[in-house]
Sequence to fold (228 residues):
Amino acid sequence: GENVEQHPSTLSVQEGDSAVIKCTYSDSASNYFPWYKQELGKGPQLIIDIRSNVGEKKDQRIAVTLNKTAKHFSLHITETQPEDSAVYFCAGPAGGTSYGKLTFGQGTILTVHP
Amino acid sequence: GAGVSQTPSNKVTEKGKYVELRCDPISGHTALYWYRQSLGQGPEFLIYFQGTGAADDSGLPNDRFFAVRPEGSVSTLKIQRTERGDSAVYLCASSLMPGDEKLFFGSGTQLSVL
Fold:
């Protein structure tokens, strides 16, 4: 099945700086890569996703890039704000499935200091 | 409803007891998932429902765990003879239709087995 590794486990930045979180995956057949944001006491919330036929996708201050050859994808947050502080998870489809059975990374705790 | 609703938000039980966790998905969503999240980890897949039937239950850890969705809407996760290792946050998610990987998560039920 799919194995997803996420780095770093913690990330601390100053407000206004950029933050980058990276994930690697093992299954070359994987074709869908979402990113979720989880705030304390809440469930994960989908913030952006990318499919394998696209190299980059952007939505306002967040972007995701995908390198299929190297089997890694990254989340980029620009102009960070204190409300961006949360745990971020990358994920990939588990076992080549085409529904919401996902393998999640271990998470990155992002702290944005005002 | 506006989002995925899970009850109770917290459940404390004693080792060996039986518990039921309830999930009310977003109205109109036909696919429903249960995930389990241990402290400091990403969510782990348990089971996937298409309508009333469990299409993939490969994530259930053993036969003490069972889930139903009798009318294709509300789902109940049932755990028999609870063990301390079952302590975790149990997350429910729904998606609009089978094959749609975009998951909408509830806030979860924090299960503590003493």
Q: What stands out?
A: The radius of gyration of chain B is 13 Å. The longest strand of chain B covers residues 88-95. The mean pLDDT of chain B is 96. DSSP finds no helices and eleven strands in chain B.
